[in-house]
């Protein structure tokens, strides 16, 4: 069996850091029996997630009720507000089409996977906390729900149940990534010990989709196209972006003339997505359509270059943003296709997936801080180098701080003044992402720079 790559010998940053603890691993070093690479990665992921929970502690202690602290202390999360804001305090099905329910509560603006997870967490919370009957809450206004007996404790239970689910998703993603490259399990430590994972893990439910994407990368590396498609389909039902992995798979299958493999992935994706969406579609079609309408109707929003243009006075209406961003993304995909087909060697799925998702985020009309998690598993598998990852993530961490300061009004310098500093932070974030895009493009065009391909005899699938 081929020996595993030792991180302290493979990565210049880790080689330098290892000097403080005795230097890189030696030729006579014995591997630990219990601390296998996967267990080390899982331990790092557990520590990172725990630090992410600690980072949210100031808001937890205030029950997320202090509108100033949640931004200044950068502990904001979408999770607690949806318990009373989307009907979960009444244990309502997210796609209930009852007119009175819809008059009282907004429909979930997320895909069904997240809606199902939140609904399940509400039931777990109600069971754990021992809340009373929810029927009496039907006559209570949404704004008054938190003052009802037991609701605040249920909300806390809802947060705990959601956090537990996201922790499991994080560990699943880390374990899957550690197995993608048989000789390079420690590449997954770039995910598990990621600063952006600590900062963004609990902002929303994105880690559910991240785990499915990591699983799809592993299934593809193990040459299991049906399972790959199922995981992509489930991912699409949770967040739309896993769909873009199909573009990378199409490039690989085109180069290999593996049309049957691509057909299996495509069919499995479609079936998994449809089966997952059917309960919502059948019980509340209009409510299920809300996600699509919401994203189509929203204008330039937080984090996007479109917001910079809009606030700077450029007339960018919603239709123009939709049309131009869609056209720009289509052009971006064509460019990735051409690069992938003309590359000297077949690019890896993580490389192609990273390029496509990065293009979508750069051109999209909203770029929320937690969207960095979409890129994270793809980025660390595409370019497993600490230097490049830290350069990219430095831009993301700057934006993570900047967006909360912006929402708290910290960048307001007077009446009518524009948040120029926030614009600068958005641009820096995009430039940091473009840097990593350029590195991955170089690795594809010049495979000798690809550290995975250089050291692994069978990297093409992953």
From TrEMBL:
GO CC entries: plasma membrane
Main subcellular location of this protein, as a coarse class: membrane
Membrane-protein topology: Multi-pass membrane protein
Entry superkingdom: Bacteria
Compartments it resides in: Cell membrane
Matches recorded under InterPro entries: GT87, UCP010361
Coiled coil ranges: none
Key words, A-Z: Cell membrane, Membrane, Transferase, Transmembrane, Transmembrane helix
Gene Ontology MF terms: hexosyltransferase activity
Transmembrane residue ranges: 157-177, 197-220, 240-259, 265-285, 324-343, 349-368, 389-407, 419-441
Family recorded in the similarity comment: Belongs to the glycosyltransferase 87 family.
Listed name of the protein: DUF2029 domain-containing protein
Annotated source species: Nocardioides jejuensis
Organism placement in taxonomy: Bacteria, Bacillati, Actinomycetota, Actinomycetes, Propionibacteriales
